[in-house]
Specification:
The structure holds two protein chains of two kinds. Chain A is mainly beta. Chain A has no helices and eleven strands. The chains are: A mainly beta, B mainly beta.
């Protein structure tokens, strides 16, 4: 079965640079979520989009922005990168079920961002 | 906001024995409780989930129990195998999904090691 696709898988940037992470949800999924996972930590919710609208916002720094496009893929844009931004970034996707529920989130393989 | 506590942080069991991981949550509005398995360098993989209208759910060697009154839920893995070794995360969220309650709140994870 098709899964969530993330690119790139690895990214190395210098401090103060910018980075763009891409997420392609499972086909027919209309909602994407972004999570950040530091070393040895649990994933922390950043932001989510449903039908191109921001649907929830977590602990996302003001230096980060994201959007969802008409084909449902999403991009996370990160500017003025700091050493502390080094982490795994996961995208997850879900879809509305017949019971009007959109709970189950399927995660991609992640992008490992290293800021030097 | 929601707070999820998970215990133990590490667990070692002999192959063939059972493993139990426990989580508690704080927000009585949470109604959806998934469990994820994360192997090194990979994204979280959903292994089982339960909604609050159900007290127990089983899928082959994996079962989850939920006590909504006490706000705790547990993962049970029977007949453990070496490939069960991974980090396991519990999570909680409100359901059904509405704008503003999309996120999963994760526990801090349990590193499970199966000893051959």
């Amino acid at each position: 079965a098709a899964g969530v696709i993330q690119s790139p898988r690895h990214l190395i940037k210098e401090k103060r640079e910018t980075a763009t992470l891409k997420c392609y949800p499972i086909p027919r999924h209309d909602t994407v979520y972004w999570y950040q996972q530091g070393p040895g930590q649990d994933p922390q919710f950043l932001i989510s989009f449903y039908e191109k609208m921001q649907s929830d916002k977590g602990s996302i720094p003001d230096r980060f922005s994201a959007q969802q496009f008409s084909d449902y893929h999403s991009e996370l844009n990160m500017s003025s990168l700091e050493l502390g931004d080094s982490a795994l970034y996961f995208c997850a996707s879900s879809r509305l079920t017949s019971g009007r529920v959109r709970d189950t989130q399927y995660f991609g393989p992640g992008t490992r961002l290293t800021v030097l | 906001g929601e707070n999820v506590e998970q215990h133990p942080s590490t667990l070692s069991v002999q192959e063939g024995d059972s493993a139990v991981i426990k989580c508690t949550y704080s927000d009585s509005a949470s109604n959806y409780f998934p469990w994820y398995k994360q192997e090194l360098g990979k994204g979280p993989q959903l292994i089982i989930d339960i909604r609050s209208n159900v007290g127990e759910k089983k899928d082959q060697r994996i079962a989850v129990t939920l006590n909504k009154t006490a706000k705790h839920f547990s993962l049970h893995i029977t007949e453990t195998q070496p490939e069960d070794s991974a980090v396991y995360f519990c999570a909680a969220k409100q359901s059904p999904t509405n704008f503003g309650n999309e996120k999963l709140t994760f526990g801090t994870g349990t590193r499970l090691t199966i000893i051959p």
